[in-house]
Design a protein that fits this description.
Elements: H1 7-16, H2 34-47
Amino acid sequence: MDDELGPQDTEWIAAHHPGDAATFRIDPRVGLRADDFATLRAWAASLDEPDGT
């Protein structure tokens, strides 16, 4: 199984999800880990910034 999302994945998400989306892979065998929560915190914080970065 590929550990990274490819361009086709992000294109599908953009076409089918109207809002902002955090696009990264979570291993279903492991679930969310500390680094995943850090990624989600950074993504959520970026939503508060005017330019989204």
